[in-house]
Amino acid sequence: MKTALECRVEAVNLANSYANEFYPKLVEVFTPFVGKKIYKQDGNLIKKIEYLVNNLNLPKTINAFIYKPLTTFSLYYIVKICISNNGIAHYHKKYFYIGEVQDGVLTKTYEKKEYKTDYNAKEVEQARLEYQEAKRLAREAESKFFLFGEYD
């Protein structure tokens, strides 16, 4: 049986993997529409773009789901991952931005960003320990001046 942390790490790695896979495909769909209106009045994508995005076959299962929130202010997608372990579900959402939108017009697409997919529980545990030690040292340092405040 996996620990809760191992499940969260698996969910993050899987979400990042999906983002890495589908980001370039989505940018390829949207790039020809830079400088053009991409949203209908109701906030949904125009039919031509919606058709192209549907052809990407974005995952839509209970364990992995990629969707675009209903908004006209920006262009981003969300990967939602569910890892089940011993009857407990562990969720993670990864937001990845495709481009900038102004007044419904796509003004630019972003450069590809590679998301890390090889996190492991041991490195997270080590980072947590380092963080706890840094907090302890910060509290110790603060105790030396707290009567006087941090700023003048």
Mean pLDDT: 93
Instruction: Please give the count of helices.
Output: 3
Number of domains: 1
Based on secondary structure, the structural category is alpha+beta
> How many strand segments?
4
The parts where pLDDT drops under 50 for at least 5 residues are: none
The global form is extended
Order of helices and strands: HHEEEEH
The side-by-side strand order for the widest beta sheet comes to: 1-2-3-4
Helix content: 25-40%
Q: Main β-sheet, in a few words? A: 4 strands, antiparallel
End-to-end gap: 53 Å
Assess the beta-strand content as a share of residues: 15-25%
Measured on Cα atoms, how large is the radius of gyration?
A: 21 Å
What does this structure look like?
By secondary structure, the chain is an alpha+beta fold. The chain has one domain (4-146). The protein contains three helices and four strands, in the order ααββββα. The chain has helices spanning 4-30, 47-54, 121-143, and strands spanning 64-67, 74-85, 88-102, 105-109. The termini are far apart. The mean pLDDT is 93.
Q: What can be said about this structure in brief?
A:
Helix content is 38%, strand content 24%. The chain has 152 residues and is α+β, with helices and mostly antiparallel strands. Strands 1-2-3-4 form a four-stranded antiparallel β-sheet.
List keywords for this structure.
152 residues, alpha+beta, 4 strands, 38% helix
SSE order and pairing:
Blueprint: H1 4-30, H2 47-54, E1 64-67, E2 74-85, E3 88-102, E4 105-109, H3 121-143
Antiparallel strand pairs: 1-2, 2-3, 3-4
